[in-house]
Specification:
single chain, 254 residues, alpha+beta, seven-stranded antiparallel beta sheet
Length: 254
């Protein structure tokens, strides 16, 4: 991940656009564009009621700190893998954050099949079709922003990279969390323009069948999150970042 101040000295001082991103993979999402530069060389949702699902609520521990440590929080890793993607996240509230981090890191390409595979792997089976459709829409939007065709091969130097940097966490019920994730995003267009941004998105996670799963959530849950307001995409190291309650992820660029 490039330092956002390199080649873009005014990126944090002149946030050229703040807006609501289409809620494809999240209930609430914001994006802050930090600026654009030329590449030098090579390189949300609608509700369905999940009340009938069985939640394994006796195994979920609350280990996330209430006060943000100065050096950030270490996010746990999965204990297993499926097709190279981590699974088997711990039955803790930070395990829910770990799933959100891995989903963000995996959804970085322009390949529809890869995006659908990731959605199918991490989604609750009852909500699988919903997340697969969101993933297809997200890929189409990335392709549009990169200036490449909706279908087919993606020409160099077009690329898309995500680096999670901070999170917040809200317990909606035992074994059921809303995870907000703040990420640096770098989008390189087909003509070599590099666009840096901060993205904040929200996902719902349930502890189901011994692992964390993405769930669609009920209309009441979504209305609650929207009315309560979710943390906005603001730069780390600013008063707004601390005021929003973001907790840094240990080892992430700041």
């Amino acid at each position: 991940m490039k330092n956002l101040t390199t080649g873009n000295d005014d990126s944090r001082a002149t946030l050229v656009r703040i807006g609501i991103l289409v809620a494809i993979a999240a209930m609430v999402a914001t994006v802050v564009w930090l600026g654009a530069r030329t590449r030098a060389d090579d390189t949300g949702t609608t509700g369905g009621d999940n009340s009938s699902q069985t939640v394994e609520n006796t195994s979920v521990e609350q280990v996330a700190p209430e006060t943000a440590p100065a050096d950030g929080v270490v996010i746990p890793t999965g204990s297993d893998q499926v097709d190279g993607y981590p699974t088997g996240f711990p039955g803790t509230d930070l395990g829910a954050v770990a799933l959100q981090v891995e989903v963000a890191k995996a959804q970085v390409g322009f390949d529809y099949d890869q995006a659908v595979t990731v959605a199918g792997l991490y989604a609750n089976p009852e909500d699988k079709a919903v997340f697969e459709e969101r993933s297809r829409a997200a890929v189409a939007l990335r392709r549009q922003h990169a200036g490449v065709a909706k279908e087919g091969d993606v020409p160099a130097p077009a690329s898309y990279a995500v680096t999670p940097v901070a999170y917040t966490l809200e317990e909606l019920d035992t074994g059921y969390y809303a995870v907000n994730l703040l990420s640096y995003v770098t989008l390189t267009t087909a003509d070599g323009q590099v666009k840096d941004s901060l993205y904040a998105g929200t996902q719902l996670m349930r502890w189901l069948d011994g692992d964390w799963r993405l769930v669609q959530g009920s209309e009441a849950d979504i209305e609650h999150l929207v009315s309560a307001g979710q943390p906005q995409a603001v730069a780390p190291g600013t008063p707004e970042f601390d005021k929003a309650g973001w907790i840094r992820i240990n080892g992430a660029p700041q």
